[in-house]
Every structure is written in structure tokens, then in C-alpha cells.
Amino acid sequence: MRFFSGILFGFFLVGLIIAAVVATGGYNVAATASPSRIETRVAQFALNRSVSRRAPAAKNPLPANPQTWAAGFEHYKDNCVVCHAAPGVDPSELSMGLNPPAPDLTLPRVQGRTDGELFWLVSNGIRTTGMPAFSPTHKPDQIWQMVSFLRHLPEVTADEQKALKGKE
Ligand code: HEC
Q1: Is 135 in the pocket of ligand 1 (CB under 6 A)?
Q2: I need a labelling partner for 162 at 20 to 30 A (CA). Which of 15, 77, 100, 152 fits?
Q3: Which of 2, 4, 145, 136 minimizes the C-alpha distance to 77?
Q4: 85 touches ligand 1 (CB under 6 Å)
Q5: What are phi and psi of 86, to 5 degrees?
Q6: Are 89 and 81 in contact (CB under 8 A)?
Q7: Residue 86 pairs with which residues in a beta bridge?
Q8: Distance between CA atoms of 42 and 128, rounded to whole angstroms?
Q9: Cα–ligand 1 centroid distance for 129 (angstroms)
Q10: Nearest alpha-carbon partner for 80 in 16, 159, 143
Q11: What is the per-residue DSSP string for 113-152?
């Protein structure tokens, strides 16, 4: 019994310390402040668990061909490259001030996500980061076009790079 009340008291104390830090303004919300390692880990863990629970199991219904990539390319140029850049395309000034940073979408940890997870992330965005939700402005088939383009992004062509460069 004393063991359990000790654990409860421990939780209470941790809660009290967190509340005190927040209430006194000790938590720095500046985008120029680096998060602690524990904050990054907890946020990354929460993101992965949340996405894998909510993402649809569906595979991308669109064929992986140049027509689909061309449609996805237009969305990427207008809505994504400013934050995420692209292979051969330098990061924009705006993206350099983002915290958390907008990741390179060709990274294995992003490409390793299922189609459904990418669809969910682009549709719903990630709250309290710069990542917007695109479902309020795009239809599901347009979001699948973006997912198709994300799969093509690691092999972006020289012409596509050129067109994206003006937009970074
Ligand atoms: C205003 C900046 C901004 C724009 C515009 C933006 N993103 Fe993001 N995006 C972010 C940030 C910041 C993150 C990282 C959030 C985090 O670390 O939790 C992110 C994360 C993501 C992720 C999750 C990566 C992962 O696996 O962890 C995907 C996928 C993504 N964005 C795709 C897109 C696509 C596609 C578009 C355009 C349709 C887009 N983003 C537009 C800022 C942006």
C-alpha cells in the first residue's frame, strides 16, 4: 500500500513541477529555442502512434504513371516546396525558421510510411507545427495525387527541379 501511495505521490509531484514551469512562463514557446531531447522524443512517439491509429488501410487508388505525377507536381509546387524543398532545390528562407523543421520528404523514415499514413498526414496536417491540413482545400483524389508525387519525389526529373526552383 505504501509503495502505491509513493508512486501516486511521485506522479503528483511531477505534475506539480510541470504546472509550475508552465504557469510561471518557464516553458519557452520561441521557434528559435531548441526543444529538449525528451520533448522531441515524446512528440515523435505521439505523432507516430496517432497517425498509425487513424490512417486508412487503403493503398493509393491512382496508377503510378507520369500523368498522376504531373497532377501531384502542380500541388507540390504550389503548396509544399516552400517548406519541404526537394532534391536539388535549396530550402527557402521561410523553411529555415520552422521549428520543428519541415523534413526532407525523401528520407527513408517518411518514404517508409504507408500510402494511408501519407494520405492522412497531408489531409489532416500536424497541429502546433507548420504542417497544414489540406483536406479543407483539396478533394481526396487530389490528395492521392500528392501522395503519388511524394513517392516520385526521390527521382524528381531535371525539368521538375527547374520548375520547383522558382518556388522555393
Ligand atoms: C508551412 C510549412 C509547410 C507546408 C506548406 C507543408 N508542410 Fe509538410 N510538414 C511541415 C512540418 C513543420 C512538418 C513536421 C512536423 C513535425 O515534426 O511533427 C511536416 C511534416 C510533413 C509530413 C510528415 C513527415 C513524417 O513522416 O514525419 C508529410 C508527409 C508532409 N509534411 C507532407 C507535406 C505535403 C505533401 C505538403 C504540400 C501539400 C506539405 N507537407 C506542406 C511543414 C509544412
Answers
A1: no
A2: 100
A3: 145
A4: no
A5: -170, 165
A6: yes
A7: 89
A8: 14
A9: 9
A10: 143
A11: S-HHHHHHHHHH--TTSS----TTTS-HHHHHHHHHHHHH
Q: pLDDT per residue over 92-118, tens digit each?
A: 999 999 999 999 999 999 999 999 999
Cβ(70) to ligand 1 under 6 A? Answer: no
Q: The domain 56-165 belongs to what CATH superfamily?
A: Cytochrome c-like domain (1.10.760.10)
Which residue's C-alpha comes closest to atom 13 of ligand 1?
102
| Total residues belonging to the chain | 168
Task: Name the residue ranges covered by the structural domains of the chain.
Answer: 56-165
For 102, what's the count of Cα atoms within 13 Å in the CB-facing half-sphere?
Answer: 24
* Atom 24, ligand 1: residue with shortest CA distance: 110
Q: What are phi and psi of 22, to 5 degrees?
A: -65, -50
What cell was used for 17? 513541477
